[in-house]
Amino acid sequence: MASPAEPSSSISFTSSSHVSNGSINNKDASGGSETGFNLDIIRLSKLSSSLEQLLCDSGSDFSDADIVVEGNIVGVHRCILAARSKFFYDRFGKDKGSIAKESKPKYFMTDLLPYGQVGHEAFLIFLSYLYTGKLRSSPPDVSTCVDNICAHDACRPAINFAVELMYASTIFEVSELVSLFQRRLLNLVSKSIVEDVIPVLLVAFHCQLPQLLAQCVHKVARSDLETISIETELPYKVAEDIRLLRLHYQAENENNLVTLDPLHEKRIKRIHKALDSDDVELVRLLLTESDITLDEAYALHYAVAYCDPKIVSEVLSLGLADVNLRNRRGYTVLHVAAMRKEPSIIVSLLTKGASASEMTLEGQSAVSICRRLTRPERLSGKDGAGAGSKQRQNMH
To answer: Start and end of every C2HC NPR-type domain (predicted)?
Structure first.
């Protein structure tokens, strides 16, 4: 049964309704054209199954190239990839003269991608489509979260997996998959919280998908996501578009017009920049030279979201920040740490007295936030994360 996080696998040149144990299901027998059509379906189905065996049969490796994805070696057949993807056609053609006939070329996914990320499981789904013309369901281990009450239709693992498939489809130039996953991501954006829109917005920006990008930009602009988060996580052009849209929305509704003190905001940005530079001493100096406090700058929230764990510990050691302070969106520092999923930061905050029982305005605790972000694969240790994976498992 397909996962709800998985797009419809309607792109296929086979149809089970026309095939039954290799025989023709043609009760009406209305004419030779229909019989011929059914025979074509059966032939294509057998071809699809035969090509799939090239990927699935580990006992007989006839591959002539390797692609390394997240440390996993995936054997591929250059003739198939070249026939199905213009990207690989051009790449293999370019390398043809520089590879000895007896050698087996090796490619690294990180070198093939100009931007974004495509994980091992996402690449296998994409590769299976190239070989068979059928889109497999996404494995639950990597496309769902470990929250038992989640419907898995718009949680972060579902979004991240669809984003990886979109990067693969766009970069490797498979247009029918681009259209399919754009529809899927448009649906996800309509249901997801604003923080989870960010990875979709980034793939839309990098892959030049204007419809998807516009929907993401408008959703972020209408949200209460902090300006500092937008400026830190998004390309300048996108952040500027969101800023202008927010001004437009505020002008339409004068009751919601927010007036900020430019000097106050400038001092807060200086504290954040000092944290970006890992200079806690400069932070201390800025605090003494102005009337801004760490809490007014939400400096601990910022450090927990974007700084090295060592810097977070140093900010905590100043003893000037409330570890249970809520920001303008109602998130405590621990909630922000849970979104980042860095165990050492979470432990530091708990040690300093952060309350794990505090709820967000949506009724989520730090633990439930972690669960919504964590794939079953992470807890089982299948991702090969080693000690880090064990730390995450113990935290839950």
So the answer is: 142-156
In a domain, 359, yes or no: yes
Final residue of a structural domain among 192, 226, 246:
192
The count of C-alpha atoms lying within 13 angstroms of the C-alpha of 67, restricted to the half-sphere facing its C-beta, is 20
Q: What is the 3-state secondary structure (H, E, C) of 267-325?
A: HHHHHHHHHHCCCHHHHHHHHHHCCCCCCCCCHHHHHHHHCCHHHHHHHHHCCCCCCCC
Q: Are 79 and 51 in contact (CB under 8 A)?
A: no
Tell me: the pLDDT tens digits for 64-75? 899 999 999 999
DSSP category for residue 230: H
Token reading at 368: 């439930």
For 26, the token pair is 């043609």
CA–CA gap between residue 80 and residue 76 (Å, rounded): 8
Final residue in a domain of this structure, among 192, 208, 235: 192
CATH code of the domain covering residue 96: 3.30.710.10
Percentage of the chain beyond pLDDT 70 is 83
